[in-house]
Specification:
Blueprint: H1 6-9, E1 16-17, E2 20-21, H2 32-45, H3 49-63, E3 69-71, H4 73-79, E4 83-88, H5 99-111, E5 116-121, H6 125-137, E6 140-146, H7 147-152, H8 154-162, E7 166-170, H9 177-190, E8 195-197, H10 208-231, E9 237-241, H11 246-252, E10 261-269, H12 280-283, E11 285-289, E12 292-296, H13 321-328, E13 333-338, H14 339-353, H15 359-374, E14 379-384, H16 392-399
Helix pairs in contact: 3-5, 5-6, 5-10, 6-8, 10-11, 14-15
Length: about 400
């Protein structure tokens, strides 16, 4: 497949990436004209020089973009001759990639004349980013978060509240990310005229998978140019973690037409049995979830299966439709990393490079470390999608300070 015109072709006007995506046919009837309005508004402003100029100014002056690419020399040396590089999205304002699409969605909300933005969050990074955007644009903000994740990600909950957001617990089901999405959708149904639901990943009904992809494209675009400038060539491989798929689709898309191997790293959690992981591309089947068709972790009767990951931002039972399409095309390889592999990567990056990564990003780093051991030459570029401030208390409580993990002098 020729990917030089990929962005023009996908998604189509109905929001489909091949057989995946959609929206109108999966939405409650009262929401269909609202999502059509969002689609038309986005397609208008994304071609507007004024909108593009304002977004670029925000990225430069408020977010601190571009974020750098960093060479992990000590970590690479410990593993062999293959070199590991990081795209430092942890240095983006608020500490993760999420602000890239939240500021774009905030601009869109202002264009539509909305008074409030609402969203779900898992690890809290999307919630913090959206609360930041709300404060910047002068909007009200409601964030729905699973009760378990509220306890697990207490620092981010505090940040959201300090930014002026209302943090509303989802207390049903597993009380994690899926339930937070359910609760946010219900709230949107009740007040869709005054607010906009700013979905936190490349999932949901059209046009959100397209919008999030477009707003996150800057990550891979910068990384590609920076790596070429640093080394004079492209990396042999790139990697990013995959839950819903926002950081990874932004990282991957600019490289689609390049001779670069691409790896999406899913959370294997505690094992391969249902309820032990959230590896949707590895174990999922075709299904519909939260207004879009994609791969879903589901039972034989079609009900959504239980999921688990040490990383709150990855424990979602579905994946963005564009990921499912690109896997079918054979362009992206989807692999897994377990909880223990992620924690090992978390500690090793902290000890060898002085960078504490988010547990979500640690999954991608864990695979990069495995790749580096298996390949005697070359390089792999990882999207370090977030910093680990939010995870340090949880990791210390459950795994100590890394003393039980193997380190070399």
């Amino acid at each position: 497949m020729d990917y030089s015109t990929y962005l023009r072709k996908y998604p189509d006007l109905n929001g489909y990436f091949g057989p995946y995506g959609g929206g109108q046919e999966f939405l409650p009837e009262q929401l269909r004209p609202i999502f059509e309005e969002i689609d038309q508004a986005y397609r208008t402003i994304c071609q507007s020089a004024r909108f593009i100029s304002e977004l670029r100014r925000i990225r430069r002056e408020f977010q601190g973009r571009p974020t750098p690419v960093y060479h992990c020399e000590r970590l690479s040396q410990k593993l062999g001759a293959c070199q590991i590089y990081l795209k430092r999205e942890d240095l983006n304002h608020t500490g993760a990639h999420k602000l890239n699409h939240c500021m774009g969605e905030g601009l869109l909300a202002k264009y539509l004349g909305k008074k409030k933005i609402i969203a779900e969050t898992g690890a809290g990074q999307h919630g913090v980013a959206l609360a930041t955007a709300a404060a910047y644009f002068g909007l009200e903000c409601d964030i729905y978060m699973g009760e378990i994740d509220i306890a697990k990600q207490a620092p981010n909950v505090t940040r959201m509240k300090m930014l002026g957001a209302n943090v509303i617990p989802a207390t049903h089901g597993q009380r994690t990310l899926k339930e937070a999405v359910d609760a946010a959708f219900m709230a949107y149904l009740e007040d869709y005229k005054n607010c906009i639901y700013c979905i936190g990943s490349a999932v949901g009904p059209h046009p959100f998978p397209m919008m999030v992809r477009d707003f996150q494209y800057v990550v891979g675009e910068e990384a590609r140019a920076q790596f070429l400038e640093m080394t004079g060539h492209l990396p042999e491989a790139i990697a990013a973690c995959v839950g819903g798929g926002s950081n990874s689709i932004g990282m991957f898309t600019p490289f689609l037409n390049d001779p670069v191997d691409i790896y999406g790293v899913e959370p294997l959690g505690r094992g391969s049995k249902p309820g032990e992981h959230a590896a949707t591309m590895t174990y999922g089947t075709d299904g519909v979830l939260h207004g879009f068709r994609s791969k879903v972790l589901q039972k034989e009767d079609g009900s959504v299966d239980d999921v688990y990951s040490i990383a709150s931002g990855l424990d979602y039972p579905g994946v963005g439709p564009e990921h499912a399409f690109l896997r079918d095309q054979g362009r992206i390889n989807y692999v897994t990393a377990s909880d223990l592999e992620a924690v090992d990567a978390f500690f090793k990056l902290s000890r060898y490079e002085g960078i504490i990564p988010a547990l979500e990003s640690s999954h991608a780093l864990a695979y990069a470390m495995r790749y580096a051991k298996e390949h005697k030459v070359g390089s792999i570029l990882v999207n370090l999608s977030g910093r680990g401030d939010k995870d340090v208390d949880y990791v210390a409580e459950h795994y100590g300070y890394g003393d039980d993990f193997k380190f070399e002098d």
